[in-house]
C-alpha cells in the first residue's frame, strides 16, 4: 500500500471502525506483513494514540481512549451523512450555534469532491419549517443541562433541581426524545413515583444529589412517556367527553394524542393536551366524533370562537 503516512491513516481508520482487530486481519487489509503492522502501531503510539495490544499468537489490537482526539476518518457516505445530520440539528432549538460550528469544521476538512456533493444536496433541496405541529415555539434545551442529565443517568447520581419552579430531587433513569422535546424518565425521591420530566423545565442545582442503585423500570419507556405526557407534560391539559365508546375513540387517535377512559353509559373520556388551546382544538376536531369540553376554560372559550368562525364560513 502507498506511502507510510497514507498507510498509517488507513490503519487508524480501521482501528476506529470497530472494537478490535487481529494482526493478521490488519495485515491483510493493508496488504503488508505482520511486522509492518507492528511497526505502524508503534509509530501511532509515538504520536500519542493509545493502541492496546495482546502479545502472542492471535493477538489483537484495540484503539483506546486517550488525551488527544484522533483524526476523524470517515468514508464518503459517512462524511455526507454526518454533514446532513449536522445541517438538520442546526434547526433544533438550543443547538443552532454548536451545530453550525461543528458543520463548518467538518466542511473545512472535507475533500473537494465531498464539499461539492454536500453543496449539491444543499442547493437541490429545501427544508420546511421546523415547527409544523404547534403555534408555539419549540422549547430551547440547554446542551449543558442535557449533558449533565446524561452524566447523572450514567453515574446513577440523583439530580437536585427546580422542576417547573418547584424544588425536586430525581433519580434519573433514561432520556427520551419525542415531539422535538427531551424527556427524562426518573423517580421522584420523595414519593418513588416514575415521571417523564421535560428537560427544558429542569433547572439543575449544585452540588448534585446522592448516588443510588437504579430500580428496574416497570414497562416500555417510550409508551410510558407518550401516555404520561398526554396527561401531565403539556402546557394545556383537557378532559373531553366523547359521544362514542372507548374502543371507537382508540381506533381513531394516535397514541401521542392522549389516553381514553371508558364511561359506564357507553361514552368515553379523552385525556389529552398540547402546547396551546389551538393545538388541542385541532386534535379533538380531527376525531370526527361529537364531544363535550368543560375544561380548561381557555379551551372552552376557544371552541366557542371557532364555532362562530366556522358558522360564518358556511353562512356567507
Explained architecture:
By secondary structure, the protein is of the alpha+beta class. It has 4 domains: 60 residues, Orthogonal Bundle (Arc Repressor Mutant, subunit A), CATH 1.10.10; 48 residues, no CATH class; 82 residues, SH3 type barrels; 82 residues, 2-Layer Sandwich (Alpha-Beta Plaits). It has 11 helices and 12 strands. The protein is elongated and about 85 Å long. The termini are far apart. The mean pLDDT is 79.
Detail the topology: elements first, then pairings.
Layout: H1 4-17, E1 21-22, H2 23-30, H3 34-46, E2 51-53, E3 60-63, H4 76-89, H5 96-109, H6 112-123, H7 143-155, E4 159-163, E5 166-178, E6 181-188, E7 194-198, E8 202-204, H8 221-233, E9 236-242, H9 246-252, E10 258-262, E11 268-274, H10 277-285, E12 291-293, H11 297-315
Helix pairs in contact: 1-3, 2-3, 4-5, 10-11
Domain HTH deoR-type: 4-69
Organism: Isoptericola luteus
InterPro entries: CBASS_pafABC_assoc_protein, DeoR_HTH, HTH_11, Tscrpt_reg_HTH_DeoR_CS, WCX_dom, WH-like_DNA-bd_sf, WH_DNA-bd_sf, WYL_dom
CATH fold naming of the largest domain: SH3 type barrels
Rg, Å, rounded: 27 Å
Overall spatial form: elongated
How many domains? The number is 4
Distance between the termini: 79 Å
CATH class of the largest domain: Mainly Beta
Strand content: 15-25%
Briefly note the structural class of the backbone: alpha+beta
| Residues in helices, as a percent range | 40-55%
InterPro entries: CBASS_pafABC_assoc_protein (IPR051534), DeoR_HTH (IPR001034), HTH_11 (IPR013196), Tscrpt_reg_HTH_DeoR_CS (IPR018356), WCX_dom (IPR057727), WH-like_DNA-bd_sf (IPR036388), WH_DNA-bd_sf (IPR036390), WYL_dom (IPR026881)
Domain HTH deoR-type: 4-69
Keywords: DNA-binding, Transcription, Transcription regulation
Organism: Isoptericola luteus
